[in-house]
Amino acid sequence: MAAQYFAERPASARDPIDVDVNVRGVGFTLTTDRGVFSHGHLDAGTSLLLHTAPDPPANGVFCDVGCGAGPIAIALGLLRPTATVWAVDINERARELTTLNARRAAAGNITVVAPPEVPDDLECDLIWSNPPVRIGKAAMRDLLASWLDRLSPTGMAVLVINRHLGADSMQRWLEDRGHGCDRLASRRGFRILSVSPR
Ligand SMILES: C[S@@+](CC[C@H](N)C(=O)[O-])C[C@H]1O[C@@H](n2cnc3c(N)ncnc32)[C@H](O)[C@@H]1O
Questions:
Q1: The pairing of beta strand 190-195 with beta strand 151-162
Q2: Which residue's CA is the nearest one to ligand 1's atom 8?
Q3: Ligand 1 center to residue 2 CA distance, Å?
Q4: For 180-196, what is each residue's pLDDT tens digit?
Q5: Nearest CA to ligand 1 atom 14
Q6: Whose CA is nearest to atom 10 of ligand 1?
Q7: What is the pLDDT of residue 6?
Q8: Which residues line ligand 1 (CB under 6 A)?
Q9: Pick the residue with more confidence: 3 or 6?
Q10: β-sheet with 190-195: strand ranges across
């Protein structure tokens, strides 16, 4: 099913599997499902991001670009209950799962939307994302460019990208686009990149 995780309406039969997530002192349960990224487990790259990204600011507008079943958005929502968290995904089943999982975790500060529902003037103080590398290099760069241009002047994005799926060329592209871009961690085949506005 991995090749279909970014379908807008997955057709695969349901097979819900619950996964427990514990990060930075908060714990929650995620229902995962077929047709959505990381069925039955927490992705190793996502886990690395959750454990190594710098602490989120005390407050602000946070965005999870490509929320899947919601591990990043829900962690942010629980870690910073007074922040506003936007969880965005093209995949309808992913949005359903994030909504369900956020409700069960009592993370009431998360708004789950499809890309066309994102307000034009939304500005993000923080983006944490495991972006959809498999949509292809050009599409992924367009997606990231559109979100990075939403960063507030003091904002920051933290991205996890598989080293074998172009993390280093992505870093060079971000720098060429005028962003500050630092490698915060490199482990288990993943790079964690912090990106500042240009
Ligand atoms: C690598 S997965 C990460 C999922 C989740 N954040 C996690 O860490 O388990 C990337 C997600 O991006 C979503 N996606 C693909 N294209 C998108 C787009 N244009 N806008 C928003 N999300 C998109 C996919 O459906 C998928 O759920």
A1: antiparallel
A2: 46
A3: 12
A4: 999 999 999 999 999 99
A5: 66
A6: 132
A7: 87
A8: 5-6, 37-38, 43, 46, 65-68, 71-72, 88-91, 94, 115, 130, 132, 135, 143
A9: 6
A10: 110-113, 84-88, 61-65, 124-129, 151-162, 190-195, 181-187
